[in-house]
Each structure stands twice: as C-alpha cells, then as structure tokens.
C-alpha cells in the first residue's frame, strides 16, 4: 500500500494550492481528480465564462453607442468565441500535471472513497496517508422532480456547439443571471424562473433591482416566486412547469439549464467509514480547517462547511491555511477578510461587506448613501442606464461597513472598497485620495 504524508482529493484551486505548497514544504504528496486537472474555475467556471463575456462586452458597448459614434452593432460569433475559450481550457490540465510532476507530486486520475479512517480506495489500489485533504468542490444540485434529468449543467452550457434558440434557467442565482445575459446577447430567447421573491438574495436588494430592470430590458423573461416542478420532453423542445401559489405556468424552450445551486461534492466519498463529520454544507471543520471528528482530515474550498463564500479566492486562501497547518501543525486559524463578490452580468453587480439589512440586524449606528448615478458623467459618456451604488457607513467610526455597486467596471472598483473596509480607513481620508480622472474610480469620493 502506498503511503503519503498528504493525499489531496480534488485538483481545483483549493487542492492544487495545498498539494503544491505541501510538496514545496518537503512532504510526500499525492493528488487525484476524477476529471481533468484544473477544477471548476479554470475548466468550467470563472475563466471560460469570462472569456466568452469578453465578446458580449463588445456587443453591449457597441449597442450603447449605436447612433452616437457607432454605426453597426457586431454579432457574437458563437463558434469562434467558444474555440477561443477552449484554447484556455485545453492548456490547463497538462500544464498543471507538469507542475505537479516537477514538484515531485504523485498524480492519479480516479474517483476515491474512504475505506477506513486513514485509507482510501483508489481504483484497485489502497492508499494511506498521515493527512488527507478533501477539496472536491461542489456539483450542480440534483433536481429530483419529474424530468429533472433533462436540465443541462453550466458545464454543458460552456460546451454548447450551437446556441439554442430559446432556453430556460431554473433558479435565480449567479449562474442563471450570468449565463442568461451571455445567451441573450448572443441571440437566444431566455427565461429565468426563480422560486423566491428576490433573486440573488445575498446581494443588496436595492442594487439587485437595477439588475432586474437591465435584465428585462435585455429581453430576458424573469419569472419570480415560481418553483419549477416538472420538465417534459416534447419532440425537440422541453415543456417546463412551474408553480406560483396555486397557479401553474408552462414554458416551452429548446434547452433547460440547472442553475438551482451547487451543494458540496462529498456525498460519494463514504465519509462515515472514515468517521468524518459533515453537513449538507460540507465537511465540518474547526478554525484550523481540520475535520471535527477525524483529525487526519482537512478540507478547503467549496467542499468545506466554512463561513467563507464558495468563490475561487476563498478556495485558494483556505488551501494555503490547510497546507500551513499540515506542514507546521495547527497554527493558522481561518479569518475571512471582507470578501467582494461579483455577478458578471452587463451591467456588473457587485458588493462587499454588510448589506443594509445586515447592518440593521447588528448593534451598530450607521448611515446609508443610496443613489442612482445614471446622470453622472461616467454613465452618460458610456450611455449606460444602470449605474447605482449603496454605501453603508459606521456613524461612530466614520468608516465603511459595506459597499454595493451596479455599473461599468464595478468588478474592479469594488476591490478599493474591500481594502477600505479591511483597513478601516475613515471616509474623510477616502474622499481626500487623488484618483485618476476621468475614470470610474474618480466617482468613489462621491459615493461615500
Ligand atoms: C459556472 C461557474 C462560474 C463561476 N464563476 C466564478 C467567478 O467568476 N468567480 C469566483 O470567484 N468563483 C466562481 N465560481 C465558483 C468557483 O469556481 C469555485 O468556488 C471554485 O472553483 C472552488 O474551488 P475548489 O477547489 O473548492 O473546487 P473545484 O474547483 O470544484 O475542484 C474540485 C475538484 O474535485 C474533483 N472531485 C470531486 N469529487 C471527487 C472525487 N470523489 N474523487 C476525485 N476527485 C473529485 C472535481 O472533479 C474537481 O476537479 C463559479 C462556479 C461555477 C460553477
Ligand atoms: N461570479 C461568481 O462568483 C459566480 C458565478 C457562478 C457561480 N458561482 C458559484 O456557484 C454557486 C452556485 O451558483 P447557482 O447560481 O447555481 O446557485 P445559487 O445558490 O446562487 O442560486 C440558486 C437559486 O435557485 C433557486 N432554486 C432552486 N431550485 C429551484 C426550483 N426548482 N425552481 C426555482 N428556483 C429554484 C434557489 O432558491 C436559489 O436561490 C454560487 O453559490 C457561487 O458561489 C459564482
């Protein structure tokens, strides 16, 4: 039986970070993944999505300036942008595996299961290790209603050879909004069906309202307070049934996508055999990211039940903490800085720190600046309809508690607000900074 100091399950951002750092720290490391090395972000998430969005940004910008400087709005060439996207995806797995080999890491390509507290079944082989790291990420929620299996995943969206003429997204979260905007700008007729009253429920709802307007302006049908309960195949189409109160509604589309959430990918690992405590949210861990019941086990990224958001930078951060605790003993406790989060629609929606509702529920005196900035120079020169912000300021310390923006380049600007919250810089100081002009950042002093 092969024995390792550390064996990592899952080669996404979390697993890769742990494996490379532990190997650099002199430990004997093995890693396995049931899919190609690279994980969700690089192969079927953030990166390929962002490459495709590049093309839709050109179309969106041209559309805004049509008749005021631009004559024709270009079409997105789906096949070409998909080929460009694929060039990034194809590069990753061999590059990552080469890096592992150079670092002396043993590489495997098999799904694993625990057979005891310190043994894994890997194909026909057994492997033992002083520490195991569960970094298996998350998978699309299984849709258990009738015909749920007809719904395609976000991965299948990112691999579509041709764009269907119409499509429906189940659930109104990140994936639905981002992919719906891509598809609508590439010419598909899109519907989003969300069960709750408020889509993107963890974002500042006054800012989400502007995205709802922009989404409907784009021609996307956004159906709220409706739960999808059935999908039927009707010749080449799908009939999707939803329920809102006592009212049933039906939608006929060429493709249906499952954007109903992503639970942790831990339920096939036979965790009980290894005495590993877990919940629906992931592997249960203490502040060192070590499992609460089996001390040989650590977890990082989307598969760990932590207070960190299921986002790439958090997976990387947790990976570093796990590696450090394995190498040097439990010394580093996880402590999440203010985490900016982005919905890559056009316009971009983003936020960091407390929402107004969260501030209300805390014992803190705060003031709110909420304003539409559609008449500001930046909105007018770019001809954007949706540009708005909400900042929440602690009245006692005069520092920022939260910032929420929809508008051009908001995905970049929000990082400045994240630094402001983390450092506790006074609003007066933030206002006194010199910002390049005319840029989106030059609006910051007027937002606080
Ligand atoms: C469509 C989409 C878009 C996203 N966009 C963004 C974004 O723009 N920004 C952002 O910050 N985050 C984004 N995310 C979230 C981000 O991708 C994840 O938070 C991040 O990839 C988590 O990294 P991880 O290492 O925990 O898991 P993963 O990257 O999912 O890696 C886990 C790996 O474990 C493997 N695995 C699972 N089970 C087993 C098993 N039993 N045996 C062996 N291997 C196994 C999987 O094959 C996978 O490769 C997006 C997610 C999706 C789905
Ligand atoms: N830009 C980004 O950072 C980014 C982009 C994409 C995905 N992600 C990550 O991926 C995760 C999963 O994204 P997601 O969009 O699938 O999930 P999500 O959790 O953001 O949203 C899913 C929504 O679907 C609703 N829903 C579930 N079943 C339904 C049904 N039968 N009918 C109607 N509505 C239903 C839920 O109420 C929920 O609000 C996110 O939590 C995020 O961490 C991040």
TrEMBL record:
| Keywords, ordered alphabetically | FAD, Flavoprotein, NAD, Nucleotide-binding
GO MF annotations for this entry? nucleotide binding; oxidoreductase activity
Required cofactor names = FAD
Where in the chain are disulfide-linked cysteines found?
A: 41-46
Flavoprotein as a keyword of this entry, yes or no, is yes
Segments forming a coiled coil: none
Question: Which residues are listed for FAD binding in this entry?
Answer: 50, 302
Annotated NAD(+) binding lies at: 171-178, 261
- What's noted on cofactor binding? Binds 1 FAD per subunit.
Per UniProt, residues of the Pyridine nucleotide-disulphide oxidoreductase dimerisation domain are 339-446
The UniProt record lists the FAD/NAD(P)-binding domain at 4-319
Q: Does the keyword Thylakoid apply?
A: no
What the entry lists under InterPro entries is as follows: FAD/NAD-bd_sf, FAD/NAD-binding_dom, FAD/NAD-linked_Rdtase_dimer_sf, Pyr_nuc-diS_OxRdtase, Pyr_nucl-diS_OxRdtase_dimer
Q: Which Gene3D superfamilies match?
A: 3.30.390.30, FAD/NAD(P)-binding domain (3.50.50.60)
Of which family is this protein a member? Answer: Belongs to the class-I pyridine nucleotide-disulfide oxidoreductase family.
This chain belongs to the protein called NAD(P)/FAD-dependent oxidoreductase
Organism whose genome encodes this protein: Christiangramia fulva
């Amino acid at each position: 039986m092969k024995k390792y100091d550390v064996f990592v399950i899952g080669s996404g951002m979390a697993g890769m970070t742990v494996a490379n750092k532990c190997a650099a720290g002199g430990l004997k490391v093995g890693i396995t993944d049931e899919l190609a090395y690279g994980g969700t972000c690089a192969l079927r998430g953030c990166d390929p999505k962002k490459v495709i969005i590049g093309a839709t940004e050109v179309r969106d910008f041209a559309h805004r300036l049509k008749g005021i400087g631009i004559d024709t709005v270009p079409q997105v060439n789906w096949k070409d942008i998909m080929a460009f996207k694929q060039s990034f995806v194809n590069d990753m797995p061999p590059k990552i595996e080469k890096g592992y080999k150079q670092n002396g890491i043993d590489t495997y390509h098999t799904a694993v299961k625990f057979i005891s507290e310190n043994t894994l079944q890997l194909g026909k082989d057994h492997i033992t290790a002083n520490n195991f790291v569960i970094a298996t990420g998350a998978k699309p929620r299984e849709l258990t209603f009738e015909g749920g299996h007809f719904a395609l995943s976000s991965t299948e969206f990112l691999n579509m050879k041709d764009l269907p003429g119409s499509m429906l997204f189940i659930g109104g979260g990140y994936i639905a909004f981002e992919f719906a905007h891509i598809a609508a700008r590439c010419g598909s007729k899109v519907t989003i069906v969300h069960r709750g009253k408020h889509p993107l429920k963890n974002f500042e709802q006054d800012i989400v309202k502007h995205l709802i307007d922009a989404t409907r302006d784009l021609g996307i049908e956004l159906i709220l307070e409706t739960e999808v309960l059935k999908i039927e195949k009707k010749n080449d189409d799908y009939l999707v049934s939803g329920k809102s109160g006592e009212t049933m509604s039906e939608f006929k589309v060429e493709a249906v996508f499952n954007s109903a959430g992503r639970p942790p990918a831990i339920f096939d690992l036979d965790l009980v055999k290894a005495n590993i405590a877990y919940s629906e949210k992931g592997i249960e861990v203490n502040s060192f990211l070590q499992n609460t019941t089996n001390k040989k086990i650590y977890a990082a990224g989307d598969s760990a039940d932590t207070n960190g958001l299921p986002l790439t930078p958090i997976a990387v951060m947790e990976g570093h903490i796990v590696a450090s605790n394995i190498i040097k003993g439990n010394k580093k406790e996880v402590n999440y800085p203010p985490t900016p989060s982005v919905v890559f629609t056009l316009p971009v929606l983003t936020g960091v720190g407390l929402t107004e509702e969260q501030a209300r529920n805390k014992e803190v005196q705060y003031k709110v600046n909420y304003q539409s900035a559609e008449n500001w120079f930046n909105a007018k020169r770019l001809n954007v309809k949706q540009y708005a912000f909400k900042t929440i300021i602690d009245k006692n310390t005069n520092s920022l508690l939260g910032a929420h923006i929809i508008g051009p380049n908001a995905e970049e600007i929000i990082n400045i607000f994240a630094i402001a919250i983390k450092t506790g810089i006074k609003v007066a100081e933030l206002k006194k900074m010199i910002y390049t002009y005319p840029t989106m950042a030059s609006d910051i002093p007027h937002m606080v």
